[in-house]
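Entry for the shared binder. Reason: the reviewer on the internal report wants the predicted structure included alongside the sequence.
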Amino acid sequence: MELSTGRSVGSRLNGRAATIFFTLAVALAALPLVAAPAVASAVATPAAAHRSLANGLEVFAVENGAVPLATICVVFRGGASAQDRSDAGLFHLYEHMLFASNEKYANQAAFTAALNAMGVPSWNGSTGEEYINYYITVPSDKLDEGVAFWSWAVRHPVFDPVKLEAEKGVVLNEIKGYHADPNQVFSNALESRLYPGQPWRKNIDGPEANIQAATVADLERMRSTWYVPGNMAILVGGDVKAEAVFASVSKWFGDWKGASPPAIGEPPQGAIPEGVRVLFRDSGFYDGVHNVRFSWRGPDVMRDTRDSYTIDVLSFLMTSPVGRFKKDLSEKVPTIYDPEYINFSYPTARDGGTITFDTFMRTGSPESDGAILDRAETLRTAVIDELALVAADPEGYFGAGELAKAKRKLVDNNLLSMENPASFVTGTLVFWWAVASSDYFFGYEANCDKVSFQDIGDLLRKYILDRPSGIAVRVSTKDAKKDQAMQERIGALKFEPVTAANAFWWTR
């Protein structure tokens, strides 16, 4: 059971599923950065069969008989994007409580015994920005037992007040670690300022006080509002037949009734405010480099659907390791650490879509290279100037054949993501269904194929050129102290210093 910091890189397997953090190799092994979108799958293939029950519950079956196992995943739309100020963090608490007891399995010991009896080798649950999902992997001849297991868990949970108090402690320990994680401090400091109107929709866990005050009645309200068949999908992948999956799900879930879930992400997040600049002086960060991140308000996938396809294709063009964008930008800004770590990403989002440029710069000598914060501003100007060149003539900038290559890579990544049915249903399929829809999923490749160079130019003009952007700089405290001009430049450039004490929306 865990907090999911990702979205899925997806634009991507990253394609769009959402942004994830990975590490620089060897010398900078612990430095976090945003991965370039690799595309999450949306292959319209018979291997991903789909059906909807009369109550609105959607079922996906992915047939792959390579090993005699089946992964059964249940997912609900919700998470951070469905929160408000008062209940932020409760989706995570509910996720834990779903494993506590139900009308058949009275306690966690009974849960565990049932899993052992089925021969379950792996199971887990997680809460993310746009969904909550749970899965078990069973021997394929235990398919019906596995589906039945989830029917008791999600349809008939029992929320015991004593168990709730105990589980609060577990959740609080998890989120305390999350709040102390420098990666989360940095990311939340920027996002809470990019979206000041409804920042709780961007933070998975919420304030500890919300967890401490939660009651059984709060969980029951969540259950009747969000944990209903019309807000749920069951995804099964492995050594199964689609008809057997549909029959089992219909048997155990077909008579389930529930209200239609409320809309997610309404009203939409607003535009990014002017002048968002944050500085994080991190005592644990590596000396000699600093991380610079720029963010723009991007498309919301269900409101700006066509734009979301366009930016996925553009992301592949921008992040090509041998492409012009990385090469030219590195030549124009020689303090960039390495063009390999220039990232341009758009984690697909139903609410508050964000376009991000992220890279590392050599800290060097303030005397020869200028103050760290001035270098960040210089880099932003260079990035926008480069994107203006792209927008003016995308075909001339990238080359006529590069658009077709980018689309081909999308298809190839989609095919590769289906090789492992367990990770496909618990990652790719879950993400696309929850963040977009099954229609979006099955039409993804065809719609990406329609993207033109004209669409790319239009998108850059619409979302980036002459639009507000946020800046975040992360630097080691040692390097910050060496930069004698930093304090003066913080005031002159209007950067806001951030720490764990003011990074999150409820601590500001």
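Summary line for the report: The first helix runs from residue 90 to 97.
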